[in-house]
Specification:
Layout (H helix, E strand, L loop, with lengths): L12 H7 L5 E5 L6 E7 L3 E6 L12 H5 L4 E3 L11 H9 L4 E3 L2 H9 L5 E4 L4 H6 L2 E4 L4 H4 L2 E7 L6 H23 L1
Parallel strand pairs: 4-5
Antiparallel strand pairs: 1-8, 2-8, 3-6, 3-7
Length: 185
């Protein structure tokens, strides 16, 4: 059995499952369309990631207005969250002018650690850096975003082979482990 792992923007994952081009997907979960189901959900909402010494690191929550005043480092060009989850965030994203747009997460991490700006990620993307104290994650002051979950998604209109179901079970266990770790950071 051969698996191919591909990276897509969060908003593209569901369409990959619906089209049959993917059997499993991890992404932020809003309202799911017919044909896609969540086999696991984890409380790993998007928030603001910054270097440990950043002035916003002392705040408990961060507003979009505060984010707008900071150099923003964008991974790819698409928003991580659509207007169905938060119209306010979607409008903010459309108006945001990044100082850097990059397609390599490692580069964005290096720039954040170096204090070159902020970005928006779930803790899952920065588990190691958060544990080491290199970066700080803070929630937005938007309740809709703070309730957002990451889901392990599968197509509901077709049966997955046994080996794929086993992979989904392992992925689900790991997602729950990461949720537990992230809750301590």
């Amino acid at each position: 059995m051969t698996y191919t792992i591909a990276s897509f923007a969060p908003m593209e994952v569901v369409s990959q499952l619906q089209s049959g081009r993917a059997d499993v997907g991890l992404t932020f979960v809003g309202r799911l369309p017919a044909g896609v189901e969540a086999v696991a959900l984890a409380a790993l909402p998007a928030g603001v990631v910054m270097g440990a010494g950043h002035p916003l690191a002392a705040k408990a929550v961060i507003s979009l207005a505060e984010c707008a005043e900071q150099p923003f480092l964008r991974l790819l060009g698409q928003p991580p969250i659509g207007s169905a989850v938060s119209r306010e965030f979607a409008q903010f994203w459309d108006e945001l002018e990044p100082v850097v747009t990059c397609n390599w997460t490692t580069m964005v991490k290096r720039l954040i650690i170096a204090g070159k700006g902020i970005s928006f990620f779930s803790k899952i993307a920065f588990i190691d850096e958060l544990a080491k104290g290199d970066v700080v994650w803070r929630p937005f002051d938007l309740p809709d975003l703070n309730q957002l979950k990451v889901g392990n998604l599968v197509p509901s209109q077709r049966a997955l082979p046994h080996v794929t179901q086993t992979f989904v079970e392992r992925l689900t266990r790991r997602l729950k482990q990461l949720e537990s770790v992230a809750a301590t950071l």
